Amino acid sequence: MKHYDEDTVYFISYAKLPTEIPAAALHKVVGIGLIINTKTGRIVDVSCTLLTQEAKDFMRSILIGRNLHEEDIDDITNTIKLRYHGYAQKAVCVAIKGSIERYNTWKQEQIKK
């Protein structure tokens, strides 16, 4: 089991998969979970419900190390659009955007406390 330090949080978001891809028969949605270091803004780990291990590993390689305090959502989703050309590309971008937006909302709420 992996251990994450106390400065990490986990956010996940889902998006509907296109019906013509095999993963849709199993999941109907794609989920992208981000484990984020709240002090640095870096994504330290990623979970993803894409069907093949290669797709999951590739998504992790694109996202781990990205800094949500320094990069905006469009920079990250544009990288996905440039590098990931699976049928689930749009759904993956929507799910990533949702996870990042949930983190940003949470972060703003923490500042107010």
CA distance, first residue to last residue? 32 Å
Main sheet properties: 3 strands, antiparallel
Order of helices and strands: EHEEHHH
Which class do the helix and strand fractions yield? alpha+beta
Name the beta content range: 15-25%
Quaternary organization: single chain
Mean pLDDT rating: 91
Strand order of the largest sheet: 1-2-3
Q: Total number of helical segments?
A: 4
Overall geometric form: globular
Low-confidence stretches are none
Query: Whole-number radius of gyration?
Result: 14 Å
Q: Helical proportion?
A: 40-55%
> Would you count the extended β strands for me?
3
Present the secondary structure layout:
Elements: E1 8-16, H1 22-26, E2 29-37, E3 43-48, H2 53-63, H3 73-83, H4 89-112
Helix pairs in contact: 3-4
Quickly list its features.
single chain; globular; 45% helix; alpha+beta; 3 strands; 113 residues
Concise summary:
The protein contains four helices and three strands, in the order βαββααα. With 113 residues, the protein is an alpha+beta fold.
Explain what the structure shows.
By secondary structure, this protein is of the alpha+beta class. The chain contains four helices and three strands; from the N terminus they run E-H-E-E-H-H-H. The protein has a three-stranded antiparallel β-sheet with strand order 1-2-3, covered by helices on one side. A hairpin with a 5-residue loop joins strand 2 and strand 3. Helix 3 packs antiparallel against helix 4. The N and C termini lie far apart (32 Å).
